[in-house]
Amino acid sequence: MKRIAMMVGRLGLKAIYLFVVLWYYSIQKIKDYERNYAWAKKITVAANRAGKVTIEAHGIENIPKENGFIFFPNHQGLYDVLAFLESCPVPFAFVIKKEASNIILLKQVMNALGSLSIDREDVRQSMGVINTMAEEVKKGRNFLIFAEGTRSKMGNQPGEFKGGSFKSAQKAKCPIVPCAIIDAFVPFDEKHAKPVTVKLFYLKPISYEEYKGMKTVEIAAEVKRRIEETIAANT
Q1: Which residues make Cβ contacts (< 8 Å) with residue 49, sequence separation at least 6?
Q2: Mean pLDDT of the chain
Q3: Residue 25: which domain range?
Q4: Taking 80 as the threshold, does the pLDDT of residue 54 lie above it?
Q5: Per-residue pLDDT at 103 exceeds 90
Q6: Looking at the DSSP assignment, which residues form a beta bridge with residue 197?
Q7: How many domains is the chain partitioned into structurally?
Q8: What is the SS3 assignment for the chain?
Q9: Is the pTM of this model over 0.85?
């Protein structure tokens, strides 16, 4: 990946320093999530500048003022979480597929933030992760999960949103924050390393009172609809 190489190359020795501190934070048994999040954000901002990636964030005011909510964005690739790390002002953890949980740097960020890995092929493990996330959200932590389960390979066109991931919100009775990502597939998937702008739209949250009578597949369809409308209006 040309852009990753450019990020590391332009950061030089600073990249080693940033990673070593992150690694240290990631292995601590008792996590300071706010401190760790601030460090992950610092790394992301530095990497984006070195890699000539600009994050254009909209709707930050829609992020709930009280903690204990879940972001549900469309999924375009490994870069998606970085767009959130730079732009989101409050700490959050995320859920990623098991296969990606051992990728260097992503693994350390994941552990530092108390994130979770999910095995989509193991129903029992998947439900365990959904339940764990719900309990953590009840305690006031914020999470991000990709309802598509895997990234879309159709550019800015989202894939199918699966209802299962929304069980976490139902169990936690928390706000759902739909998020629309545009061009997040470009930084790591395209072969060039030209300057690129990734757009991220934080949409108005859906309160528990609004969706409590809906089935998870209905919630998934509504969240996808709002995301697709936003993408269509901004591409």
Answers
A1: none
A2: 94
A3: 2-233
A4: yes
A5: no
A6: 54
A7: 1
A8: CHHHHHHHHHHCHHHHHHHHHHHHHHHCCCCCHHHHHHHHHHHHHHHHHHCCEEEEEECHHHCCCCCCCEEEECCCCCCHHHHHHHHCCCCCEEEEEHHHCCCCCHHHHHHHHCCEEECCCCHHHHHHHHHHHHHHHHCCCCEEECCCCCCCCCCCCCCCCCHHHHHHHHHHCCCEEEEEEECCCHHHHCCCCCCEEEEEEECCCECHHHHCCCCHHHHHHHHHHHHHHHHHHCC
A9: yes
CATH number at 16 reads 3.40.1130
Residue among 81, 92, 76, 166 at smallest CA distance from 127: 166
> Could you read off the pLDDT of 106-158 as tens digits, one per residue?
899 999 999 999 988 888 999 999 999 999 999 999 999 999 987 777 889 99
Tokens 């767009």 map to which residue? Answer: 83
Q: The tokens of 196 are what?
A: 């690129």
Per-residue model confidence (pLDDT) at position 203 = 98
**Whole-angstrom Cα distance, residue 179 to residue 230?**
9
